[in-house]
Amino acid sequence: MQRIANLIVRKDNKVLLLKKPRRGWYVAPGGKIESGESIFTAANREFREETGTIPLNPHLKGIYTMVIKNDQDIVNEWMLFTFVADGLEGTPYEDTVEGVLEWHPIESLHHLPMAEGDRTNLLFAVNEKGMQYGTFTYTEDFELLNETIQISTEGDGINA
Amino acid sequence: MQRIANLIVRKDNKVLLLKKPRRGWYVAPGGKIESGESIFTAANREFREETGTIPLNPHLKGIYTMVIKNDQDIVNEWMLFTFVADGLEGTPYEDTVEGVLEWHPIESLHHLPMAEGDRTNLLFAVNEKGMQYGTFTYTEDFELLNETIQISTEGDGINA
């Protein structure tokens, strides 16, 4: 099963997003997790490769099961691991082979064009405490058919 | 790729463990994540099925890449998602088809027989704050060849 790690950097009330050329939709920089690689290592590596910068104190915020359906048939399924970081070291590329890197105000995540599941995930990553889990079901044209979401936070019993 | 979710319940300074019949090694109750299922839903479902109880406030504590090597060849690779919960609702089964469920003092995780990677993971889950990531490489006989670990905690920028 394909596994994708992405990472959204938050700095000065802005976030760094990648505008993909095909649809003009925005995503957080990221890419495929390799065999034997931890998801943390993958998220850091992919972010560095796509932006030319190092994210500061990345932390996992969401794990999602993504399902593509054609009518009742599942035609694709993958996992998405979304990290947040507070700032970065270096100056991001502007144009890359993957698309254009742009800083946008955090609140623009509410209206920039993107997959609806990504909007849910990125808003949680930058605004909320804890961890989010869920399943997003899309058509092959990335119309969101269904989403189910769960959230958990670290209990008081830790180090109690 | 196979994906396993397990869950360790901590209650009154004890943890609920499953003693597997083949080697007598201890594990946290868990099992396979199904197609389309979120890892949170899977961890809860598997725990309920294996123990007959409901975990309270489960929270993800670790994500691991598990690699089995025969000499230089990777013969198997899967992902493990480890949750912790503070208490449970109900009375656990004693004997199950999977093994015997037993309560043990938290500190016994240091010496009970188990895979060495599981020891690292479960001790982190019950004793530490934040999220742990890593890759564990084993022989086919579950001798630990190598481990690499990363840890992150939620940044101060959350809700700042």
Automatic annotation (TrEMBL), chains A, B:
Q: Which InterPro entries match?
A: NUDIX_hydrolase-like_dom_sf, NUDIX_hydrolase_CS, NUDIX_hydrolase_dom
Q: Signal sequence span per UniProt? A: none
Any one GO MF term held by the record is:
metal ion binding
Keyword Metal-binding annotated: yes
Q: How is this protein named in the record?
A: NUDIX hydrolase
Which family, according to the similarity comment? Belongs to the Nudix hydrolase family.
Per the entry, which co-factors are needed?
A: Mg(2+)
What residue stretches are annotated with the Nudix hydrolase domain? 1-127
Which PANTHER family does the annotation name?
A: 7,8-DIHYDRO-8-OXOGUANINE TRIPHOSPHATASE, OXIDIZED PURINE NUCLEOSIDE TRIPHOSPHATE HYDROLASE
One GO CC annotation, please?
Answer: cytoplasm
Which key words are in the record?
Hydrolase, Magnesium, Metal-binding
Name the source's superkingdom: Bacteria
